[in-house]
Design a protein that fits this description.
- By secondary structure, the chain is of the alpha+beta class.
- It has one domain: YefM-like fold, CATH 3.40.1620.10.
- It is built from five helices and three strands.
- The protein has a three-stranded mixed beta sheet with strand order 1-2-3.
Length: 80
């Protein structure tokens, strides 16, 4: 993982974006992590939107905690 300061990022944005396509780039401010560049070249807009959508992932997490119904049980219910 590469690290770059905010000041250097301003000078080398193109290089950093290219680097982010290969590996994540941590942007630091005053020596502390401030941001993360993640390359998304080649992905479609919908995938990018879903990956970056916090409410969507919160909903997924909530749903995963709920009780589920097996396929066998669902088929039994539908055939009744």
């Amino acid at each position: 993982m590469k690290t770059i300061s905010v000041r250097d990022l301003q000078k080398e944005i193109r290089k950093s974006v290219d680097e982010a396509q290969k590996d994540r780039v941590v942007v630091t401010r005053n020596g502390k992590p401030a941001a993360l560049l993640i390359g998304i070249e080649g992905q479609d807009w919908e995938s990018v939107f879903i990956q970056a959508n916090a409410p969507f992932w919160k909903l997924i997490g909530k749903r995963r905690k709920e009780k589920t119904t097996s396929l066998r049980e669902m088929r039994r219910r539908l055939s009744s």
